TrEMBL record:
Keywords: Endoplasmic reticulum, Glycosyltransferase, Membrane, Transferase, Transmembrane, Transmembrane helix. The lineage of its organism: Eukaryota, Fungi, Dikarya, Ascomycota, Saccharomycotina. The chain crosses the membrane at residues 476-502. Belongs to the glycosyltransferase group 1 family. It comes from the Eukaryota. GO terms for cellular component: endoplasmic reticulum membrane. This is Alpha-1,3/1,6-mannosyltransferase ALG2. Residues 220-413 form the Glycosyl transferase family domain. InterPro entries: ALG2 (IPR027054), Glyco_trans_1 (IPR001296), Glyco_trans_4-like_N (IPR028098).
């Protein structure tokens, strides 16, 4: 099969790791894979992207910015994705058998329209005279987590602003031929947030790359430092709750032997992402407030002397924007990984640590409930400083090396059995092939899956009217008064016209 991936920003993160592993896995099964993305910094990406293992095409970054004065991030993300999708449909000469979309589903209706036209022409030539034939390309949408749940809604204006995007997300998601999610937790949230979609998405767990390349110099520095280290690996984002690890660790500073311990805080960091900059600054400020000495080491590969000094003289070491070999070295040299996010959709980092025989301390919420076996491969604790402080104390001062080694061994066995790249790629392949078999028929419509949106009723009509009022108010200044009948009608007409014009 010829498979195209559409992903917003191919940087360093859990979603990006999944895309890379899925693409490489499908390549290994003999498929042709191309990844389309709106942004890819070759200095801030995974090795498979940097070294050319994957064919990556970057488009959609020339017209629309990432934000407008720091706002309208979702609107800009949608426009960038649509720009990227139009490029794929209009200028690419390859006829794809399958399209893999993740994170944002807004391009799915556009893909359906474009692919129907694409495959209605002889030999996939969109300039030819259309002929009726079944649509070959199947669209898979992989939901890491409903986007509507990732947005903050602290004000009425923000809630009104999000209404149309939430509605379009539900509709566009429903238009995919194949729906997959990354965990049972996400599956439950999907069903809860999209009641109008009658299909239950299938769970396909992300995998862990079995490549354990480590920077041996960094690993030696950590292990030879004489300190029992805890390591946190997350993007520098506030929602990751890294401050929980800092606070829990700081609460142990009066414990005997604390001077022989360290907390390593590493992860994805991009200087152009304001969230990353603010998060690191706040964590540094928190250390100052708690009286914890800290050092930030940039570009570790070229600053080994600074890393050595930091490990010997400070308790908290920040390591922003580390490469995969350095990250693996930091994890391997630590007594345990601390995974702080609450209600994380899945969480790939705990699996990476388990693969390297390292126990995991994670919150007893979300994805880790499906990956970490409490008391066997690690510890699951409520996201509370007291509970985490107790877990840290056990790992640093109570647990023997033999005990931690046994937990690490059991964790590795779990990962190799349930979360391999081969198994994940095979699951995606089966999904594409089963959808293609289902779509057999003589024309485009014959191969469609049954409608998955419930028949519109009075509730839908009322909702559309309310949405129309919201849009009307947003455009004309939010005059917080009771809308007139004419205002309701005008707003509703706008919504209906846009709805039927584009979908």
């Amino acid at each position: 099969m010829k498979i195209a991936f559409i992903h917003p920003d191919l940087g360093i993160g859990g979603a990006e790791r999944l895309i890379v592993d899925a693409a490489v896995g499908l390549l290994s099964l003999g498929h042709t894979v191309t990844v389309y993305t709106s942004r890819c910094d070759r200095k801030h990406c995974f090795e498979e992207v940097r070294d050319g293992t994957l064919d990556v095409i970057v488009k959609g970054d020339t017209i629309f910015p990432r934000t407008i004065f720091g706002r309208f991030a979702i609107l800009c993300a949608i426009l960038r994705q649509l720009h990227l999708t139009l490029f794929l449909l209009q200028y690419e000469n390859t006829t794809y058998d399958a399209i893999f979309v993740d994170q944002l589903s807004f391009c799915v209706p556009l893909l359906r329209i474009g692919l129907d036209r694409w495959n209605s022409s002889p030999n996939g030539d969109r300039r030819s005279t259309p002929v009726r034939r079944k649509r070959k390309a199947r669209i898979l949408f992989y939901c890491h987590f409903p986007d509507k749940l990732l947005a903050t809604r602290k004000s009425l204006i923000k809630r009104l602003y999000r209404l149309p995007f939430d509605a379009i997300e539900a509709y566009s998601t429903s238009r995919a031929d194949i729906l997959l999610v990354n965990s049972r937790y996400t599956q439950r949230m999907f069903r809860q947030e999209f009641p109008s979609i009658d299909r239950t998405p299938t769970v396909v767990y992300p995998c862990v790359s079995e490549s354990e390349e480590k920077n041996e110099k960094v690993l030696k520095l950590v292990t030879d430092s004489g300190k029992g280290a805890l390591v946190s690996v997350n993007r520098f984002e506030k929602k990751k709750g890294i401050d929980l690890a800092v606070r829990a660790y700081a609460s142990l500073r009066e414990a005997p032997g604390f001077a022989k311990t360290a907390l390593l805080v590493a992860g994805g960091y991009d200087k152009v992402v304001q969230e990353n900059v603010e998060c690191l600054s706040e964590l540094q400020g928190l250390c100052d407030k708690l009286g914890m000495e800290h050092t930030t080491v940039w570009d570790i590969e070229n600053n080994l002397t600074l890393l050595r000094a930091a490990l010997s003289s400070t308790s908290v070491v920040f390591c922003p924007s580390v490469s995969s070999p350095v990250r693996n070295a930091l994890i391997s040299g630590s007594r345990a990984l601390t995974y702080t996010p609450t209600n994380e959709h899945f969480g790939i980092v705990p699996l990476e640590a388990m693969l390297m025989n390292v126990p995991v301390i994670a919150t007893s919420t979300g994805g880790p409930l499906e990956t970490v076996d409490d008391g066997v491969t690690g510890w699951l604790r409520a996201p509370d400083v007291g509970a985490w402080s107790s877990a840290f104390h056990r790992v640093l001062f109570e647990a023997t090396d033999a005990e931690l080694k046994m937990m690490g061994k059991q964790g590795r066995e779990t990962v190799l059995k349930k979360f391999s790249r081969t198994e994940m790629a095979a699951s995606f392949e089966r999904a594409f092939l089963s959808a293609s078999e289902f779509s057999s028929g003589d024309d485009t419509d014959a191969g469609q899956q049954p409608a998955i949106m419930r028949t519109p009723g009075l509730r839908d009509g009322a909702w559309i009217a309310i949405l129309g009022c919201a849009l009307y108010y947003c455009k004309y200044g939010l005059a917080f008064t009771v809308p007139s009948v004419s205002e309701v009608l005008v707003g509703s007409c706008i919504v209906l016209v846009v709805y039927y014009a584009f979908f």
